[in-house]
Structure formats: C-alpha cells, structure tokens
Amino acid sequence: MARRQGQIDERKREAVLDAAATLFAEKGMAVSMEEIARVAGVSKQTLYNRFASKAEIAKALANQRSDAIVAPLMGTGEPAQVLEALAVSLLERVCRPNKVGSMRGVVLMSAEAPDIALAVYEGGPLRSLKLLSAWLAEQTRAGRLDVPEPEDAAEMFNGMVLGHAHLRAMLNVPQLDAARRARRARNAVRLFMAAYGPKVSVASRTASDA
Questions:
Q1: Residue 77: DSSP 8-state
Q2: Dihedral (C-alpha) 80, 81, 82, 87: value to the nearest 10 degrees?
Q3: Rounded distance, CA 2 to CA 173, Å?
C-alpha cells in the first residue's frame, strides 16, 4: 500500500529531528543546515520547507522532548499517582544518554547562539513548567490539591525531582540508576503532597471522627 503524503512528510520531519539531535550533541553550533539535511537523507529544499533555521529545529526538538516528559499529565488518576509518573518520566529522560548529549550540545552553543538557547528553553523546560502549572491549578480548582501559587510549585516540584540529575548529565558523570530514580520520584511526590495536598478543615475532621 502506498504511503500517504502526510506519512512521508512526517517521516522526513522525524529524520531531520533525529539527525539534528545527533549532530547538535556532537558539534554544537558548528553544524550547518546542509549537514543536517545530508545526515537526514533529505534535500536542502525539503529541510528549509520545514524549518527555516537551526533555532526552529532546536525548538521542535525541545517540544518533542517536552511532550514526552509531560505525557502523564494527560492521563487520569489520583494527583499523587500522576505526579509520580511525571517524576519518573522526567528523570528517565534527563538521565538517558542519547538525550543528554543533545542538551549538552545546546549548552555548548548557548553563548554563541542565544536565539537557539532561548528557543530550546521556551519550547522545552518552560513549556513543561507551564503545562504542569496549569495542571496544578486545575487540580486545585477541583479540590484535589491546594496549590495557591502553581507556577512556583511547578518549578519546586521539578527541582525536587531532578536534584543534581541535570548537573550530572551536563558533566557526563554517572547517573542515578533505575532504583534510585524510582525512590527519588516517590520521595519527591510524598514531600510535595505533604505541602500541597488538599487541606481538611478542623470541622470536617471533627465530623469524620465522630
């Protein structure tokens, strides 16, 4: 069966993003659009039809990574369950060697290409924080959490989960193993829920104990 045009376009887009992630990790800003096209197996015209610049490619990569990390927020379940799944997802992707390399490449290019660094931050970490913040606000409105300042809480949650994982990744030193990642996720959620779990009023507690 012949592939539809949309399927072909998506396959080429994924090839470009895969090639760019590898090349950014290896060479940083020194990579040219022509080299990305060659490694991806597409023409320069095809590449430029989809991405006008390396900044656009970097932002698309960041969006892709962000979507994968926050996928648990799209599911259902108790807040603690969703947050633990999110914490595991975040740690697994930060600690994954092939993903670490591309992020290290962005760090290397940030001084000479601030537009790319900003695109990556806005399309990845900042976007993930905004999605988590919106989810926390929604859970608060539903009475399942009590988070008065969701933007700050989202950033603090990510900080508790990651700890030094990002720093280890940037410095290419040994990362947390699976058991420690799972334990970190559970502990971060336990602390977060202790601070932001739904508050039970004294009257409600007295009534339930009666």
A1: S
A2: 80
A3: 46
d(C-alpha 10, C-alpha 155), whole Å = 33
Looking up tokens 């924080």, which residue turns up? 129
Rounded to whole angstroms, how far apart are CA atoms 92 and 182? 10
Regarding pTM above 0.90, the answer is no
Give domain status of residue 205, yes or no.
no
Q: How many CB atoms lie within 10 A of CB 121?
A: 16
Residue 204 lies in a domain: no
Q: Exposed, middle or buried: residue 2 (CB in 10 Å: 0-12, 13-18, 19+)?
A: exposed
Query: Do 9 and 97 reside in the same domain of the chain?
Result: no
pLDDT at 8 over 60: no
How many separate domains does the chain show? 2
User: Which is more confident, 163 or 112?
Assistant: 163
pLDDT tens, residue by residue, 163-206: 888 778 777 788 888 899 999 999 999 999 999 999 865 444 44
CA-wise closest residue to 58 among 122, 127, 10: 122
Domain that holds residue 70: 54-196
Q: pLDDT-derived band of residue 84, with 50, 70 and 90 as boundaries? A: very high
